Predict the structure.
Amino acid sequence: MIRRPIAILPLLLLAACAAPQSSEPMVAKVPAAPPGGVWEVTAAAEADPSASPLTSPYLGQKMMLSADVAGDPAGRICRSPVYQGWDSAPRRVLGNSPAVAAARSDSVRPVLDVSCGEQPFGAYLSQPDGSLMTRVNNWVLTLNRVPDVPKPADPVAVTLLPASPPEPPPVLPALSPQTLVYLASYRTEASARKGWAVLAKASRILAVQKPMTQMVDLGKKGKWVRLYGMAANESERATLCRQLAKLVDECGARNRE
C-alpha cells in the first residue's frame, strides 16, 4: 500500500536540535511536505525555571524549511532535509516542563520531524494558532512564520505594453551562523555555574557570553547538567575548544548538542 504525504499545519525548523528523549513507545511516521517560508523564534521559556533567569540566545533567530534547505534555531543548515509527520502529546517534543502550559496539555497535536541524512535535525509541534514549538536545551521555543513580501499591485493599463520580465524572488533574511558548542557536564546547576566562571576566564569567546545549561537524565549514570557556549562559525568553534583544551576533555562533542 502506498502512503501519501500527509498535510501538516504550516510547520517548519532543533532540532539542533533533537527533541527530548522519551520512554514512550515509538510512533509511526509518514512522509510530510515541508512548510516552506521563513520562521522566526518569537518567544522562549526556560523549561527548568529553577535555574537563574537568562536571556535566550535563540530569540530573533530566523530559519526556513523547504524541500532544498532546512535551518534550526541554533543556526545550523541542512542541504538535504527529509520531512516526516506524526501525531504526539506535547511532552514528547517539549519535555516534561511544568512551567510551560503547552507542555502540560494532553491534546495530541501534529508534529513535523526533520532529519538531515540519517541524523535527527528537529521536531516541531504544531499549535492551533499556526505557530510551531520546539525544545532546544533548556529552552521551549515558539516560532511564527515571517509574512511573505507582498508583490506590488499591477498598474492599470491604458495601452498595450510588451510583457514585463518575471520579477526576481524576494530576498530571504540571512540565517544566523551561530553554532551551539558543548563544553562540559556537572552534577548540579551550581557546579555548572562555577565551571562557567573558570572556563570564561580562559576564553575571550566565552567571556562576553552568558552560560546555557541543560539537565539530562542518563538513567543508571544519574542526572547531569550539560554546559554550552556559542560560536559564530565552525572556525570559532575550533578556536574555542583549543582555548579550553587544558580544562575540559570533550569540548565540542556533537552527540551532546
